[in-house]
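Predicting structure from sequence has reshaped protein science. With that in mind, we have picked out one protein's residues alongside their backbone shape tokens:
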Amino acid sequence: MQEVTHFLADNSTVFLATQDNGRARVRPFQFQFEDRGRLWFCTAKSKETYAQLRQDPRLELCALSPDMATLRLLGEAVLDDDLAVKQRIIAGNALVRSVYGSADNPDFTTFSVDHGTAYQFDFSGRPPKTWTF
């Protein structure tokens, strides 16, 4: 799990895919942090992403490093409106703070990926690495 967390911390812009009426929807997202095995992200309750994850929590994300190493992660979103998590995100992320203002913004919410499978591969010829968490 540490290798996954390090990769996401170093390459925090990910492309997140959700289901929307049987069709894939992909958009850029920011990985926020890992805490006790949970990978944290945030969104707004008013966004389609939130509605899609409420309807079907399955997701896949992909991150790419500058040297073209790739991490794919399959899992399920756990919707969680934890105020302490939101406070940590607001304190540590100026972009999120500029969008939502404060952790108690009623539209601001969080979700985590607590279990899943991650795959990391590159163009080195080495076999891909796989982690289940």
